[in-house]
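Support reply, case 0932

Customer input (verbatim):
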Amino acid sequence: MAIFLTGGSRVMIQGITGSEGRRHGARMLAAGTRVVGGTNPRKAGQTIELAGTEVPVFGTVAEVMAAAGADVSVVFVPASGVKDAVIEAIEARIPLCIVITEGIPVHDTAQFWARATAAGGHTRIIGPNCPGVASPGKSNAGIIPADITTEGRIGLVSKSGTLTYQMMYELRDVGFSTCVGIGGDPIIGTTHIDCLQAFQEDPGTDAIVMIGEIGGDAEERAGEFIAQHVTKPVVGYVAGFTAPEGKTMGHAGAIISGSSGTAQAKKEALEKAGVRVGKTPSETAALVRDVTKR
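Our regenerated output:
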C-alpha cells in the first residue's frame, strides 16, 4: 500500500517540453512511473521522447485526462505561470496536483489554494516548492531520487527536500511506503496533519517519520493531532536548532520570533504528544530503527 501515489497512478507533466519537465520526466519514467502525457498548448499534437519513450503532448490538462486517463499532475511550469497552471488542473478536477516550482509569489499560492477549496477540495495540492511524492517500488512523481531507498513500511512527511533525501538514504535498508515532501513555503496545500492522517489509515505503513523546521506552528498543531488521532509510532526531527532568533533561514516560512516557532518549542510539543524527536537526522533514523524493532 501507499498514500496519494501508487503503482496504478497515471501521471502527466504540466510543462513537459521545458528543460525541467523533460529532465525529470525522463527520470520518472526510468523509475517505473506511468507517465501518460503532458501539456504545452503550443506543441499540442506532438510527442516528446523521454527515456526512450514517446510521450504525447496535449494542449490542456482536461485533454490528457480524457485521452490518457491521467489522475496525477506534476507541475514544472515557471513561477510566473504556476497560478494559471494549477487553476487549470483544479478546474479539470484532477485528483492530485504536485507543484514542484519554487519562487511562486505567496499571493499566487493563496489564490490557487482558495480556488481548490472553493471547488470542494476535489484536487489535492502538494507543494509548492516541494520535491514531490515517491512510493518506492511503485511510482515517483517529482524530483526525489528513485535509487536512494527501498520499498518498506515507513511513512515519511517532510518540509525539507534535502532532509527528505537524507532520511530516505539513512533508512534505505528499512524502506518506505511513501515519502511526501510538502514544501516549506508560508502557504502550502497538503500539510503534516493531512499526511499523518493518511499514514494512520494506510495498512502498508507501520511507523511515521515527520520532519519539520523552525517557523510557524505547523509542528505544534501536528503534535496535537498525533496525541488525539495517531496510534502508530511517530518519530520526529526539527531542523533549525542553531538558527539565530529573528532571522529568516532557508525556506520563506522558516522565521522565528521569541519562543514561537523555535526548534526547541516544536521538539517539546511533539514529545508531549509522545513523539520521539532526534537531534540530528542520523539520531532520528536510529530512533526509527528502535521503534520498528518493537
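We compared this against your earlier run and they match. Two observations from our side: The radius of gyration is 19 Å. Residues 79-91 form the longest helix (13 residues). Please reopen the case if you see a mismatch on your end.
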